[in-house]
Amino acid sequence: MSFFTVFLLAVALSMDAFAVALASGCAIREIRLRQYVRVSAAFGFFQFFMPVLGWFLGQSVHHFIEAWDHWLAFVLLAWIGGNMLRSGIGGLRKAEPVACPRSDPTAGWNLLLLAVATSIDALAVGLTFAMTDTNAFLPSCLIGVVCACISACGLFLGKKLSSLPMLNGWAEVLGGVVLLGIGLNILHESGVF
């Protein structure tokens, strides 16, 4: 596989992580350097790790994983998105500003679940590497680095968008809707509906 092909694949695989980072950036009042590092490191690591894992698993269990990978991604994204929606709508009902989520989407279990959910499709790419006898390590490194950079850009752009007056107070609701939309799109692309 050529460098250009792997780079395009890396950009395509990073779009879910970009959308999640964008939504997270919209929902956070003040983004600090450590949040950029956490988001970039988590999303980049899992986009690196999942193709390698898929490559290792690809020889024997790819049919089993293909049967449920989209459901796992949907459940994780729906859970986080649903929590953001519930929190955002609850704050709007109380007429409180919702510019900052109650739990930081760039930390702890939230970040781990988002990083795993957005990298499930990279597991399928690793399975493809195994079926085509392509060594997965170097392409996975490039995929991880590209995703880390794109995720940081998404967080930055999300913060810039959150300063728009029309988004003020609705950022957490918007973030939850985006995550639910990504989960539904994953199911759609997998042929569920």
TrEMBL record:
Domain of life: Bacteria
Signal peptide feature range: 1-19
Keyword terms of this UniProt record: Cell inner membrane, Cell membrane, Ion transport, Manganese, Membrane, Signal, Transmembrane, Transmembrane helix, Transport
Gene Ontology molecular function terms on file: manganese ion transmembrane transporter activity
Protein name: Putative manganese efflux pump MntP
Topology in membrane: Multi-pass membrane protein
GO cellular component term, pick one: plasma membrane
Taxonomic lineage of the native organism: Bacteria, Pseudomonadati, Thermodesulfobacteriota, Desulfovibrionia, Desulfovibrionales
Compartments it resides in: Cell membrane
Coiled-coil region list: none
Residue ranges of the TM segments: 39-58, 70-89, 109-130, 137-157, 169-187
UniProt family annotation: Belongs to the MntP (TC 9.B.29) family.
UniProt-listed InterPro entries: Mntp/YtaF (IPR003810), Put_MntP (IPR022929)
Free-text function comment from the UniProt entry: Probably functions as a manganese efflux pump.
